[in-house]
Records
---
Amino acid sequence: MPFWTKRRGGALALGLAAVLAASAASAQTITVVREVDSDRYDPHRSTARGASEVLFMMADTLVALDFDMQTIQPLLAHSWDVSDDGLVYTFHLRDDVQFCDGRPMTADDVAFSLNRWIDPETRSPVRWRAGNVAEIRALDDVTVEYRLNAPFSELLYQLTQSFASIIDRYNVEELGDDFGVRGFNGTGPFCWVNWTPRDEFVLQRHEAYSWGPPIYENQGPAHVERIVWRIVPEENTRMAAVATGQSQVTQYVPYNSLAMLRATPTVDVHQSDAAFWTYFIGFKIDRDMVDDEIVRRAMVMAVDQQTIVENLYFGEVEPAFSYISTAALDWDPDLYADLIRTNREEANRLLDEAGWVRGSDGIRSKDGVRLAPVAYGFTGSTWQNLMEAVQADLRQIGVDLQVQLFDATVAWGRLATQEFDLFGMSFPYISAGDALNLYFRSENMPTPNRMNWNDPLTDELLDKGKSAVDDETRFSAYAQVLRQVHEAAVWIPLFHEPMTIAQSTRLAPVRPHNIYGAGLYKGLDLRFLD
């Protein structure tokens, strides 16, 4: 039984399962295939793209981000005011919003949600995105005051993210640790029906929904009755599902299938470069072996990004030598010439001089320690292929990378531990500040700062950039951090990826939305043509 069939006080509402059974024959269902799942669907506790993909459909935020990834639009708040000093944001809420169970949303729900996000007991890995908060409170049923201790120029952008989703406080209290695992009561255009981990997530249309962001011609209810998010790890199976119409849309498009899909009459392919997504392998820099900057630098030099791009991605992505795209806001062009690039001869020289000696099998060791660091990553074809390519490159310099891949429902927990030396990850961002504040703040250890980068100067510079009220100060602070972390060889950058969506021609054209790499965002434009 779906969680929101229960009403407070013990009364029962019509179960969504019964609705589905009664209308199954006529239901318009869109099936979305994707490569990986999330570990949970609690907006404050998951940084997985898989979680955000579904949360954007089940929940709303105070404000929305337009397709240009720059313009802030109304959503739950129809307007807002900002004080001259940038410390007080006053949000004026719509008065017609309902949760999936029919309860009206008020300012108390907004204050509860945002305060839960920043509460240390929640242990949110992304609480920094809320800014340096002094107080968040409801002034009345339709007004929320958001007070900061320091200006935060990106606050409105961060409030568009799924982490700032408005949730039902009664639902949180009722489900406890199972919130986002057994149920979720949101205000979004779709409602939770059922989640079978590693298999599928079923959503049903929220019939009362009429407050979608103005970026959509249709602001609700959604055109389709049901959306099924189905996990299909195998690339060929995903593509066959789209090509044959078993699935109507996916953003998990293997690059070796792009040419085939573009030539398939029943499939359309759309791409967008409006935001940035970067793949990398990070070092946990306080672990034995990789705590040596020379070893890390040699390993970065061993990886041939250009060959990876050509062999695995058919030239459809951009090789990455930088940690963020050079087109992102506040990238420092002066850093470009100093980036570490593929140079195996130099990598071997560095390891030789550092005393790492090759054995009869070609693998190096030093003081009886074999140079065989352990890397964690996600199951699925993407990371399996990437890790195998990097593993082969590292053997060229005598490093025996030990790869362990986990299903996403397990991986996020394993990646919060201290038991690995490297990890594979990818992430979305729109600016240097967005990326650097996410990964390099000391307070974000052990996740998402899985590198254990703990540097007071970095924290000071990030605070300076985050609270800057002018472009020059912000750029200067972030440029210094970019140089710090690149020179320390904290990551092996791999490639920068555009947003790609493959869809059935039975659907109206889908415009990719790059917010947190979610692709389909609210899903309000998803509809069949026939």
---
Amino acid sequence: MSECIMNGLEISFDPGETILSAARREGIRIPSLCYLEGKDPMAACRVCVVEIEGAPRLAAACSTPLREGMKIKTNSPRVRESRKELVSLILSEHEGNCSWCERSQDCELKALAFELGIQDAPETGEKPVEYFDESTEALVRNSAKCIRCRRCITSCNSIQGVGALYPQGRGFKTEIAPAFSGELASVACVQCGQCAAVCPVGAITEKSHIPGVLEALEDPERYVVVQTAPAIRAALGECFGMPPGTLVTGKMVTALKRMGFDAVFDTNFTADLTILEEGTELLHRLKTVVKEGGKAPLPQFTSCSPGWIQFTEYYYPEFMPHLSTCKSPQQMFGALAKTYYAGKAGVKPEHMTVVSVMPCTAKKYEAAREEMADSGFRDVDYVLTTRELGRLILQSGLDFTALPDSEMDAPLGISSGAADIFANTGGVMEAALRTVHEIVTGRPLPGEDLHIKPLSTLEGIKTLSLVLENTAEEWIFLEGVEVRLAVAHGLRNAASLLDAVKEGRESFHFVEVMTCPGGCIGGGGQPRLTDDRVRQARINAIFREDEGKPIRKSHENPGVAFLYNDFLGEPLGEKSHHLLHTEYRQKKKVQLKI
């Protein structure tokens, strides 16, 4: 360990540690607009400059490594004046319509200007040309609000490996945009929304479905039902000042009921259903290969994450037969709501509006896919992100933190703890194993409190082997088989895993992939700004929700069992195949509109 002096304090540091990293560890605030935790610094915004004794110029704290004996001032008059001037210059080019900007309450640029004491109007001058890119189902880009911090580029390239955004042009005319300054729909954007999640201003946001939802709620002829994804309950409270990881399931249900939804259901119900369908599909593939000596596409990949599905369609079409044919829980719910539930409730499907609350912007795209209309109508009509639901609750005049708790409605609100953990990286895998292992062996999954600890970490790629022993007679052909499993979150990690499988360096039977870092709890529609500390707090909350449930295995959900007896028949049966399964097709990587 070496030592330096920062603001008069002696600080120990490891070789290679940057000034910014050490400062944050010691509780010293150094503002930044371009830095993202865990990623190589770009030093693009220069807002994090500090004064180093003996250095002729101020240094960017995010990219400057500490040295033995270095003396640093992070808030000297020279530093404060430089930051103030830099932010004023950014403001001079920024379209600052703060009164009606959706980021007005959580805009990092606005907050930084206040922190630095900027009270005068910035210098007037030429501003970038304003245009709106609304070409995708999920995202909206506003060129005039972009401050060229390049966070979105780091997210899209270094974290997701998609490469939909890059700097275009030079100097003042530089803009952050798809190739040839085209629209997002012209490139292989998977609409994951990680760019919108890290943007410090309102330059990239989700495409709002709030107006459509309000219109439906106010229409007396519409029967409006809502489903809520598991990740929402561990993050929605952040929209109202609650700490990350605060569970607000009951308050969320009360808020939705008071806003006028006719029924409040849980996407967890169809997450449990997904396990029955996807687990049965996996066992059928294993039976074909192991018992019958036939061919089946293994590994089987999960198909709950729409960004991951698009990524496969664009970049790895050779693996498309390996995708589970199961729709995501969101889309399963929509199909069932407009068929099974509509019949039970005596509502005409054409009069029903299905609203989803999701942590994911790509769910907006998924709901609009042409494949997602097996009910005879568009299965899911509107998708709200967690952030949008927070705004809708605020607009509805509800004091969220003071609301009492309520229960989800039956029958599509009954769920197990296994469904809750769909929110976390490794959660779908663990939920599947809780059921599949018990089906094959007749015994609960071994492990502490049903958890598989190696799968619950934030490592980008996790692998696990499970030897099946003492199998039931029906599954005796799997006796002694070593089932190899893998989990990846973040699309760059998924690409690394796929490359390893493609090149024969790895082989697996079942693979879970989640588009966003941390899984759905780190989705592109969650409250900003999500770092590993926030992800872990939400993950822990989801596990608490799971552990507090009386039912913790999907196959023990009585509502799902009744659904099969009353309507679907059996997993992978004719009716479930029609309503709950689909197939995807290859997409062109680039369709430039020049």
---
Amino acid sequence: MKLKFAVGIVFAFFAASIVRVFGDAAENVDVFIGTAGTGHTYPGVVAPFGMVQPGPETGYSGWRYCSGYNYDDSRILSFGQTHLSGTGCPDSGDAAFIPFTGEPVKDDYSSSFKKANEKAEVGKYSVVLDDAKAVVELTADETVALYRIKYLADGGGLFFDFQTGMVGNLAARVIESDIRLADEYTVVGTQRVRSFTQRDISFAVKFDKPVKQLIEISRPAAHKAPRWSLCFGLKKGETLKVKAAVSTVSGEGALKNLASLPHWDFDAVASQTRAKWDALLSKISIDAPEKQRKIFYTALYHSFISPNNIADVDGRYRGTDGKVAAVSDPSGKYYTNLSLWDTYRAVIPLTSILAPEMLPRFANSMLDHFDAAGVLPTNAYWGKETWCMIGNYAISVIAGCMQRGQRGFDYNRALEAMRVSSEKNHPKSDFSVLEKYGYYPFDIVKTESVSKTLENCYGDYCLSKAAESMGDKALSAKFARRAGFYKNLFDTKTKFMRGKDSSGKWREPFNPFEYSHAESFGGDYTEGNAWQYTFHVQHDVRGLIGLFGGADNLVRAVDAMFAARDTRAEGEYNKSADISGLIGQYVHGNEPSHHIPYLYALAGRPDKTAETVRKICSELYGASPDGLCGNDDCGQMSAWYLFSAMGFYPVNPNGLEYVVGAPQIGRAEISLPGGKKFTVVAHGLSEENKYVSAVSLNGKPLKGGVISHADILAGGKLEFFMAPK
């Protein structure tokens, strides 16, 4: 796959070019970043953690359209009310419609548009549809999407195709469908759909003008949902406003959600949503050139789109078992779309600093999921377990809350849920096999055996630390032992983590360049190969150094990964779309690699961390639509940039500390609870001065190359003194 990378960031650190952000931080966000290439973000509107995400759709099927939109397209098919941000699987796009003018019965209701007439900003999206002859503006609050549509010709109406949505096979998307015109102003529907998830979704769509005529349009025989043209009798220059809400519970639930926005004031909703974003984005102010500000604040925006609440306004939701339940959290909200395999690495640590009040809510949602499923979620979307990814990263989130002393959920309930989820077999983990062999043998566990072993080790480490904090020494010791199982798959001859069978024999033949992808062509790794997964020991870097025989040897191994080139010709090896943003065999476009640049610093070579972070930030992030080199994955790609630009990164997200790297911006000030400030200053930062000669915290030399979570929350000043070597 050929990716277009944005031009490297120009580090013009002159006084005249440095601008400090004041006032509207949202002004610095470019919501089109990541909408081309493989970023898979969308330009529609969403409130922080919002339930609806209305936006344009330029395609429905395949890798290109996981979010339903690609910047390079020139036709809009519809406007859906739900979208996933940056994921690698298509889903959502519910209750989609598009305006039309003229004849109500057509072969093609899609419309061309000019890029010059498409505008997107925080809280508002607008486009002129040339064929449809309509101007569409949309906004949303947390629960309701609101449209303002101005018709530029007579015969203004709306076309609904209730079959559509992001899916691999459009004909198979809808399993059951019950749609009705409840009255002349309101459409209500309930459907069972399948794509990335199989789920029940209801929706209510209300108009500020009455429907004059409903025409049912013929549809393909395999489609189970209707297609409607709704005619309003509108003339050129007239405007139609539309409100839409969804529910996992029922059509009545969707109507209640719709009623939470009692007015039709489009500009007021757009302003209120923008203000909510600005309050969150303004928690970090930076000194940086304009291009970097755009990348930074867009990354911050993307980091807090998800997870999304799916509970109705009455606090009910439909769980992974298909049953309607009441939310246990006092907020009355149930959060899903966590993309845990990705976001535990940097999004969750970032949230622990900027929005710590959200994490106990996430924990309660995970515990509610446990009550329905019997195990904590691994990769749940729309409240439904997909079993798509591996590992126990809900444990990372919950245990992290416990270690930080965050209240708002039942610690005993949480510890039991984590224990059960680490002992009870499920489709992605057979713990009886893991306990018997100390690893997953590839002849028993046919796919991802190495990755499952390594990633379960991290969950076991997190559970061990949580049990320790609760005083359960026996439980802590059990899972501390399992956390060390990664050592059983390290081959001392090849210096790689590799597959081993139940008799203790290494997989042969072995090629560390051979990529694996469970859903496509199998293999021992998850969306990666031995080069990346050999370093997947976030919780015990000292132990990893020991396996390599010393810090210098680890440094040489990481050097080799960044330099390695697969000499096989294309067609001689398996390829995966997840593998993008390569530097040698380092894969920045996928998450298992993200902590690796910081292993240099932990092995005594912070200069190499500085070099690598500068290269990644300048070459693999940009301010254009193709500015992300891989799926944003609900904000993880973005959160990596935010931490790295500020000069520190959570290699071990549950270690309550951050490894010091090399800042890429001149100054950052984080606003903390209680009115405290944590300020990061990079003295002398320039294109040449990319190395760190010294670091101080609150005026004293920083020792050990790490700062603690407590250091940040206490407020203070972290100073880097930059140098050319």
---
Amino acid sequence: MKKNWKKAIALAMTSAMMVGSLSACGDNSTPSNNTTAAPTTAASSNNGDTTPAANDVAGIDGWTPFAERVHITVPVYDRSKEGYPAVDDNYWTKWVQTEFGDKYNVDVEYVAIPRGDVMTKYNLLIAADDTPTILMEYDYPKVAEWASNGAMQVIDLDAFKQVAPTYYQKMVDNNQLAYTDINGQTYFVLSERPYYNTSYSFVTFVRMDWLRQVGYDHVPGSYEEHKDAINKIIEAGLTDQAPLPLSLPTTAYCQNFGFRDYPVDEAEWAMHSSLGTPSLSWEPTYQMLKRQNAEYNMGWYSTEYELDADGADGNTSSQQKTDFINGKTYQFGNYMSANVDWLKAFYENNPNGELAIASSYACVEPGVVDFPQNRADNPFGMIVGFSSLATEDQVKAAWMYMEWMLAGKDSNGQDVLFTMENGIEGVTYTLGEDGLPKVDGDYRGTEMLNHNCNIDMTCIVHALKVDGTIEQSIAAITPQGIPQDFTQDMIDNYYVLKEIADAQHAYSDPIFSVEIKSEAEYSSTLLSAYQEASVRLTKCKPEEFDAIYQEEAKKFLEAGYQEIIDERKAAYDAGNTTKLPWN
């Protein structure tokens, strides 16, 4: 199994170099039920069986310190944010060691994983037999690949339930147990994703002051208005460069949801809808790229947009952020928190600037996009597995760490999760009149919280901080210290997203309970091919688009995509995938 994994790593690294070369030259039926896990074959202190021994008492009350020191490694995203402490060595990593590690005779070491290059870092660690005790990612195809190629060990959910009953019960409450298996064996546990079908924490802002200058007193609510506004902004010379951001696509995700038929054909969805592989030859992607081509030819995007490919924080590129801060572009979006440095910088550089939240309906063009359709997040946050190299004690210590994060108390009697996400009262937060914490996003002392209230540490428990009601939770992540208050706008935006989701116009990608082997083999190569094709299709003359698309789609299918969609269709026909919400 290890040999197979190392072969897969070699292929992945070769593909990664190909993508890097291109970048240098140039831009959201049920799986099988859980079964009793088979013994793992990983090396351990228990003759190859790393299933932790059961405690007599379930949960924290049944824990005792390990007789011998146990060392575990925990991944944490590194977003390289200026002014923030190192993600693997800071006040809160030391706090975890003091509060949890020392109490149970465990050394907790954090491993920085670059947010913009997750797979390369993990692949290098795995190939070097230095796999973290915990492996976790948001994207199911990635962890499925690790499990299928031997990097993860099979786990026993009954044993997990005994060590971490609160965490287990959360999975039950959130209907997540159906996603813990791959290829008929149990490899994963899953963190919570609150409000998963309404991703309100990502917000796109537009220049309301520019809109006013070209005759709009509202944010465009249709594609006709959006197109009119952007073209008038260009004509008015409100910026000396292209007004909209675009960069080389650095992930496989094709933002084609709005161009899909509704309801989408379930077999087509199973074949093409994926975060792991671009869907160049699928009709919705054709429609998306055709609109992008028309927009490029109207001067909306930079003629050198493909040179922007760094994806600084794993979400959007630093160049796009810089352009928006400097008042060069019309819109920019990212995840919200109490402290959003780029928003503060925008107002400092544009003291007369006025922003508004973009409308979900700005894409609507009757006959092309009849209403917004969004990608809903998966009904879970992190998919968490455990290294095939980990010993019984290391696995148990990892489970204890997860349960402690969710259900433990610190030495002051405070909930561990509350402390990790808010810090120290009177230092990093104060309590408001509603009794909820108000985090000081400007605090830069030793105890400062890392990105988005330490979310890259607490994501092993949940993907989003929740404070009270949905309105209170949104208020808690509304940017502070800026001239405009977007609290109500963000709440209103949430309810728009909720309406879209309630109408079943928001749904996630299929999740397979078997490995799609061809996807693991071809996905990196196809991403490189998609990058090249999408740039060519975006920048060609409109009258050349259809012929070039047919040529590129044929090459794409022959490069491995046909094998992927055939294998995904076979898995769908066999009942090894999730179902759409209306089926």
